[in-house]
Amino acid sequence: MTTHAPHASHTVTLPASLDEAVAALTAMPAAVPVAGGTDLMAAVNAGLLRPAALVGLGRISEIRGWQYLDGHALLGAGLTLARMGRPDFAALIPGLAAAARAAGPPQIRNAGTLGGNIVTSAPTGDTLPVLAALEATVIIAGPGGARREIPVSHLLAGREMLHPGELVGFVRVPLLHAPQAFLKATGRTGPGRATASVALVLDPARRGVRCAVGAVAAMPLRPLEAEQWVASLIDWDGERGLVPEALTAFGDYVAAACIPDPAPPEDGSEPATLPPAALHLRRTVAALARRALGRALS
């Protein structure tokens, strides 16, 4: 806690295991779990959140590493962004490592965690479009040792929510052993904060391209038709290269899917056009998608 945090918590519990943390949250329904605290403390210092108690997750060693499991990587929710940005992790999941390295200044990367990114679900969270493109799932720990697994996209979209006493314990990510790319554009909204981001992964086993666009909506967007179209153009048994015109068309396809034109008026009058800011954002997304696909195929 910081000394200038208004209405700071008077109760801090520091469990040593995931099940102990769940038990603490179950016993104190008003308690708030905290790992890196990069978003939580900003909300506290701004007077937007006044937690009655905190359950600190920093001492739970089981969620601070990763392991291999049936062609997947099981990532602990307590993995810091700084740890994910290191070379050994980059060799495992390069897209996620690139996003972690791009996530703001060192103090943010040293404190911020993978699970915190997911639970906070800020539109500008850099790891979120990568997780969406990888079609990752989260393993949620609940009371009594219960575990359930849901797609990350369901949690981000609000289709499934954390129940009282539950915590995100792990993230399961398929190991594709194929090129991945993450690119983002930043503006004046804060250090390293994205105005738009694009994650792109190749899946040679399924002959697919998966793309997710972040920061332009409340959750990462998947342009499924654009993915299917460009995957059909790739020679998966050959060089996998595409002509520049195809890369440009893919970028435009992705951008139009994520930032569509306004719906035509029902009265048949002149259709509205996108405002200049939206047109600029569409061009930015198109450029990012084009470059990401080009890097993945190069």
Automatic annotation (TrEMBL):
InterPro entries for this protein: CO_DH_flav_C_dom_sf, Diverse_Substr_Oxidored, FAD-bd_PCMH, FAD-bd_PCMH-like_sf, FAD-bd_PCMH_sub1, FAD-bd_PCMH_sub2, Mopterin_DH_FAD-bd
Pfam families noted in UniProt: FAD_binding_5 (PF00941)
Residue ranges of every copy of the FAD-binding PCMH-type domain listed in the record: 4-178
Keyword Membrane: no
Keyword Oxidoreductase listed: yes
Keywords recorded for this protein, A-Z: FAD, Flavoprotein, Oxidoreductase
Protein name: FAD binding domain-containing protein
Originating organism: Streptomyces siderophoricus
